Every structure is written in C-alpha cells, then in structure tokens.
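Quick one, probably user error.
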C-alpha cells in the first residue's frame, strides 16, 4: 500500500549526474505517496545528494543537514551520493543524520525508510564495497528545469592520480542504447526542449552496456541514435574526455539539427609533465588538435575547459605553461579547480606540495583569464541572430536563457516565452558592475 500524506524534500550538490539521480529518487518516493516540497519547508524526509569533488564536502553536507533540522527537527535526514560512499562513518556522526546510503543502496531508499526512526545518536549506514556497484540504474531529471539531464553512463576505469570518483562510483558501465532512447522519448513527451547527456566518463559509453567490459556500442553509435529521436529540440553533450572525442563525433554534431555546438572538454593542465603525473590519457598536442578541429567545422561553437591549479609539483614555470597554453587556445570559458588532497589517491602523497596561498593566486589568475575569454566569445556573437531557450525563473523582472552555443542572455520577463525557443538578435553586453562570469550577459532586445 502506498504511504499517503508524507512529504519529502531534496537538495543536490555537485554535478549534472547527481541532479539526474536525485530526480529519479524523488520519482520513486512520489510514486510511493510522498509529496515533494521545497527544502526549506517542513518535511518528513530530507534527502541530500552529496559530492566528493567539492573542496569542502564535509562542511557543505553539515550545512544542509542544519537547514533540514531548522525546517523540521523531527524530519528524517538521508545522505546519499559520492561523499556518502567515501565517508559513511564520518557522515553518520553528523548531528541530525539518520541514514547514510552508499552507491548501491541509494536507489533502494524506500526499503530503508519504512522502519526508520529519528536518530538521536549516530545515523544508520547501508554501504556496500564499491566493487559490488557493477550495475547500471538509468536516471534523468525532469520537472525542475527547462532542460533534462539524462544519465547514459556511470563510473570510471581511468586512474587519474587526484580523483576519488572511481572509489565513489565504481567501474565504467553504460545504459543500453534502447533504454537511453526510451528515456529520451519520455522526456520529449513532457514538453522538455533540451536534453543534456551526463555521466562520469560519457566518451567511454558502451562499456558494460550488457553487463560485460566489452564495448558493445560506442559514443558515436549513441549520438547517432539520439539524433533521430523526434520531439527533442536540443541535445547538449556534457563533459567529455579529449582522447574519447573523435573526429566522427565532432562532424556529427556539426551537421546535426539536434546536437548543439557546445563542448566541455577537461584539460586539467597545460603542462605535459603534469598531465603524465596526473595519469591523464593525452598530451597537450592532442588537446589542441581537438579544439582546432571543433573550430574548423563549428567556428561559433562554445568550448569550455576544466583546469586544476596547485597540483603537486606545479612550479611557477609549469603553471605559466598552463596559463599560456590556455591563453593561446580559441576557447570560450574555464572551470577552474583548486587542487585539494584526497585520501586514498596517489597525488595525496606526492612531493612538491604547492602552498595554499599560491594555489589561490593561480586560481584567481585563471578565473580572470576565463572572464576575458568569455567576454571575447560573447562579444564575437554580438549582431548575430540565434535561437534562445528561455527559462522559468523571474529575477527582478528579467528572464534568462541560453543560445545553442551557450551564450546566456536576458530580456524583460514574459510568461509566454517560458520554455519556448525564440529567434532573437544579440545587441550588447550588459554592464552591471559585477565581475562574476555568469553576470556578463548579452541582452536580446528584439525578437526576429
């Protein structure tokens, strides 16, 4: 029998993949009779989906547990996600936490809620060894945003020396093409205009699709199939490794009517020496070739880059190699991460520790470079006519949206434009006195 008159609230930290999985967990609870409410409201259950990539994962987790307890001191607090898999004992000791579920258990949350009581001691832990997480649970987000995050792959077989994701999510494994296409069609039926493909290492798609380590299909096979799905206006590829982004995939995006000209390609360092220390699977020449290939076939494409500063052994000279490499590349923006030590990683015990103040200084230098790159890219789009997908939120009488090539734009709020794709003319950059990258918007003053 379903449980009625119960409420559940959700908060997600981290990546698009976490948003997809939170949404799937929320649908499970909704189907069992739980009404979804805002996180600040009084709820019977608070589900917090955590991340291990953020520098202060423990602090962020504690902060949101406190928020839940403020909203309802008697509410049940359940912690899931990467941090829950990596540090279950630590999380269980946080005041207010009642249940910690690991990577295997989080999608069985209902079976753990039936007899759960508010804990005034340590929380209950259900967490498997990560080796047991060798199955795939399809997930997608829906209902919260204009776009949907569609999970196509999970886990990672790479051994990057700074990364805990393989410890938190297990081996690389994929959904079947048939199920991905089924989910895409279901998303399309909900009048969602854009799908973002997500995973830990989506370029490795196809491995584990049928429960084995073979590549039954490739990423190219997947995007070919999705390109034929009716009802979806846009498909956006999230982060993809440069060594797995092949010419054939770039060419497909270039000629596609659904895949948009936007790539996010992790670099991590512009120094070949540091790339080898990180155990990345490419060097700077391959990375540059990928960027130039995209620019050749899609001159207006947005290209985002992940980069890490302060990795062990990163001297001033090696950091400047990265800075100059990025400065010379025709990219659109950066996501800059400050290296922080992670337990059970090779990098944590490497020599050549970079002082914290130096890491912060280098982070600031690259964030300023990112702002310059983004402003230059936005400026290059002024005067163009592009389609924009408008979002729901009303911010002080303004609404915002993204062009296909990821220029964020604004206009006066118009409820008739929500979740609509409209052709607009890009007029000028807004100057609001802020240095935040996300506030450097192009304003669209006239529809075409």
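Nope, works fine. Designed sequence:
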């Amino acid at each position: 029998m379903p449980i009625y008159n119960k409420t559940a609230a959700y908060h997600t930290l981290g990546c698009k993949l976490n948003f997809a999985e939170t949404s799937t967990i929320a649908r499970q609870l909704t189907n069992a009779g739980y009404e979804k409410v805002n996180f600040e409201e009084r709820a019977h259950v608070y589900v917090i989906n955590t991340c291990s990539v953020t520098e202060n994962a423990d602090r962020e987790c504690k902060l949101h547990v406190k928020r839940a307890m403020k909203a309802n001191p008697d509410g049940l607090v359940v912690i899931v996600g990467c941090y829950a898999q990596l540090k279950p004992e630590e999380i269980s000791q946080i005041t207010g936490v009642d249940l910690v579920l690991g990577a295997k258990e989080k999608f069985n949350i209902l079976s753990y809620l039936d007899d759960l009581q508010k804990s005034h001691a340590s929380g209950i832990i259900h967490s498997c060894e990560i080796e047991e997480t060798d199955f795939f649970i399809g997930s997608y987000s829906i209902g919260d945003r204009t776009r949907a995050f569609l999970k196509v792959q999970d886990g990672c077989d790479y051994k990057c020396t700074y990364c805990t994701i393989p410890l938190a999510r297990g081996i690389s494994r994929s959904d079947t093409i048939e199920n991905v296409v089924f989910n895409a069609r279901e998303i399309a039926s909900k009048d969602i205009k854009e799908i973002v493909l997500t995973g830990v290492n989506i370029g490795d798609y196809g491995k584990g699709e049928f429960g084995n380590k073979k590549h039954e299909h490739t990423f190219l096979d997947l995007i070919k199939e999705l390109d034929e799905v009716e009802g979806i206006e846009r498909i956006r590829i999230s982060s993809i490794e440069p060594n797995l982004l092949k010419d054939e995939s770039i060419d497909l995006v270039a000629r596609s009517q659904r895949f948009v000209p936007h790539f996010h390609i992790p670099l991590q360092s512009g120094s070949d020496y540091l790339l080898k220390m990180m155990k990345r699977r490419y060097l700077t020449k391959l990375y540059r070739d990928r960027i130039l290939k995209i620019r050749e076939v899609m001159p207006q494409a947005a290209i985002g880059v992940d980069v890490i500063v302060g990795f062990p052994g990163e001297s001033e000279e090696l950091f400047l190699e990265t800075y100059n490499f990025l400065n010379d590349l025709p990219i659109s923006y950066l996501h800059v991460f400050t290296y922080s030590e992670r337990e059970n990683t090779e990098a944590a015990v490497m020599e050549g520790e970079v002082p914290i103040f130096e890491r912060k200084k280098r982070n600031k230098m690259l964030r300023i470079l990112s702002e310059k790159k983004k402003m230059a890219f936005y400026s290059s789009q002024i005067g163009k006519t592009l389609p924009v997908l408008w979002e729901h939120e009303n911010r002080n009488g303004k609404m915002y949206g993204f062009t296909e090539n990821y220029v964020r734009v604004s206009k006066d709020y118009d409820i008739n434009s929500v979740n609509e794709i409209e052709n607009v003319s890009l007029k000028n950059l807004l100057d609001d006195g802020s240095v935040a990258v996300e506030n450097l918007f192009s304003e669209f003053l006239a529809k075409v």
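Residues 432-448 have pLDDT under 50 and may be disordered.
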